[in-house]
Amino acid sequence: MKHFRSIGLALAATFAVSQAGAQELTGTLKNIKDTGAITLGFRDSSIPFSYLDDNQKPVGFAMDICYKIVDAVKKELKLDKLEVKLNPVTSATRIPLMANGTIDLECGSTTNNAERQKQVAFTNTHFLTASRYVFKKSSGLKSIDDLKGKTVVSTAGTTNIKQLTEANVAKSLGANIIPAKDHAEAFLMVETDRAVAFVMDDILLASLVAGSKSPDDYAVSKDAFSKPEPYGIMLRKDDAAFKKVVDAATAALYTSGEAQKIYDKWFTAKIPPKGLNLNTPISAELKNEFAKPSDSPNPDDYK
Amino acid sequence: MNYNWNWGIFFQPNPMGTGTYLDMLLSGLVLTLKTAALAWVIALITGSLVGVMRTLPSKGANWFGFAYVEFFRNMPLLVQLFLWFFVLPELLPKGAGTWLKQLPNAPFWTAAIGVGFFMSARVAVQLQAGIGSLPRGQKMAATALGLTTAQGYRYVLLPMAFRIILPPLTSEFLNTIKNTAVAITIGLLELTGQARSMQEFSFQVFEAFTAATLLYLLVNAVVVTAMRFLERWVAIPGYITGK
C-alpha cells in the first residue's frame, strides 16, 4: 500500500513539475534563489586550479569554470544579480562544508572516483591527470623499476599512495614508502634527499617543480602508475535539478572551445602571483573529454 | 544536513589492501600507543633528571635545568618536530645528516624522541614543584641522618615528591598520548593520521573522526583507571596523598 502511495506521489510530483515548469524549485537552486547568493569553496594552494593570488583573491582554472557555472545558474533562475560568496576549504573540510550547505560548489582539484560518489556528486571532468613521480635529475631514475629498494614518498590519503603501494607489491619493488602530510612536505622530502621520488598527480608535480628554488634540478617521470584520472567540480549528491544546470553549463563551456582558451591561460602561459609557467599543453585525452563532456569516475572512459 | 552516513564503512576493505578501514584505524592506534609509550619513558627519565637539577644547591645545575625547561616548553611541539625532522639533519655534517635521514622508521623515532623531550620539560617542572612542596625539614633531616645529597634524594625527597605529583603526572601522560597526534606532520600514520587517510579515501569524514575520538577516549579511560590503582597502591597512610 505504502509503495502505491509513494508511486502515486511521485507521479503527481512529475506532473506538477512539468506543469509548473521552472517555478517549482528544490534543493540548491531554491536556496540560491531565496538567498540571492551562491557559495564557492576554493583551495588556497592548489596551483593552478584554485589558489590565492597576491591580493589573497582565489583564482585558477577551476575558479574560472565555477564562475561560468555561476553565470549559467543566474540565467537559469532569471536573477538580476547573484552574489558570489567565497569560502576556503581544505581536503579535510570540503565534505562537511558541502554536506551542511556552507558551500554549493567546490572548485579545486578533487579526484572524481566511485568511492567518493557515494558521498557527493561531480560535474563534467575538467582535468585528467596520471600518477607519476618527480625526482632529482642527478639521481638518474629512468623508470618505475629504478625505484627498487629506494625510499619513496607520497601524500597520505591520496589515490596516488594507494597506486604506489599496489605497484610496490605487483612489481616487487621493495621500496620503502613513507606518507607525507601534504604535497609541499612530500616535495620537501625529495628536496632534502629524505626520499628519492615523490609520487603524485603529474600536474601537481609540474607546479611544485615550477615553484621550487631550482626547477631545472627536477624532472617528472615518463612512467605512470595509473591511467589519467578525472578531476571534477564537486556538488551535493541527490540534487538532480542543480546538477542538470551545472552539467549543461560545463558541457556548453567545454564544447564551445572557450575551455581551451581558459586552459591555455592557466597551463601554458605565465600565471600569478610569481609568473610561473607550467608548460603543460592539453593532453589528447582531455581534448577528447572537452569534445564529449563526461562525469564518469572511471579512467577507462577517457581514452 | 545532506550527509550520507555509512557506519558500515569500517568493515569495508580499505584501498591500501591492508584489510578493512577498521584495521587501518587500529594499526594507527597501535602506532599511537608505541609512540606514546616510548615518549613517556623518555619524558619521565629526562624530566626527573632535569627536575632534580633545578632543586640542587649547585648554581650550574640550576641554570642548566632552567634553560632546558624554557627551551622545550616555550616552542610549539609542531615547530619542534619540524625542526628535528627537517632542519637538524641539514645542520649536521653531510654524512651524519644523510645517515639520519635514511634511518628506517625515522618519523617514529623523531616523533617519540621529540614528544618525549617536549613532555620532559613539563615533568621536570612538576617534579620541581613536588620537591619544593616538601617541608624544608625533610632535606635537613636527611642530611642529619648522614645521607649524602644523592642518598637524600633517593631515599627521602623523591619518593615523597613523586607520590605528591602522581595525579598531575597522570594528566601529563594523557597529554603525551594526545600529543603524538602532532606526528602526522612528519608522516607518522598514527591514529589521527589514519583517520585522515580514511576520510580522504572514502570521504566518510564524520565516521572516521568519531571512531578516532572513541579510541582516544577508550585509551584515556584505561590510563586514568590504571593510574588510580597506582596512586592507591603507593599511598602512605597519614600523608597528604594517603587517606
From TrEMBL, chain A:
Arranged from A to Z, the UniProt key words for this protein are:
Amino-acid transport, Periplasm, Signal, Transport
Superkingdom classification of source: Bacteria
InterPro entries, per database record? Bact_solute-bind_prot3, Solute-binding_3/MltF_N
Q: Which GO terms describe its cellular component?
A: extracellular region; outer membrane-bounded periplasmic space
**Signal peptide: which range, if any?**
1-22
Where found, per UniProt?
A: Periplasm
- For the keyword Transport, the answer is yes
Q: What is this protein called?
A: Amino acid ABC transporter substrate-binding protein
This chain's source organism reads Bradyrhizobium ottawaense
From TrEMBL, chain B:
- One short Pfam name that applies is BPD_transp_1
Q: Mind telling me which residue stretches traverse the membrane in this protein?
A: 24-51, 63-86, 106-125, 145-166, 208-230
**Keyword Cytoplasm on entry:** no
PROSITE patterns in the record: ABC_TM1 (PS50928)
What GO CC terms are in its UniProt record? ATP-binding cassette (ABC) transporter complex
Q: Where in the cell is it found?
A: Cell inner membrane; Cell membrane
Could you tell me one molecular function GO term of this UniProt entry? transmembrane transporter activity
Q: Name one GO biological process term.
A: amino acid transport
Classification via InterPro entries: AA_ABC_transptr_permease_3TM, ArtM/GltK/GlnP/TcyL/YhdX-like, MetI-like, MetI-like_sf
| Similarity comment text for this entry | Belongs to the binding-protein-dependent transport system permease family. HisMQ subfamily.
| The protein's name | Amino acid ABC transporter permease
What is the originating organism of this protein? Answer: Bradyrhizobium ottawaense
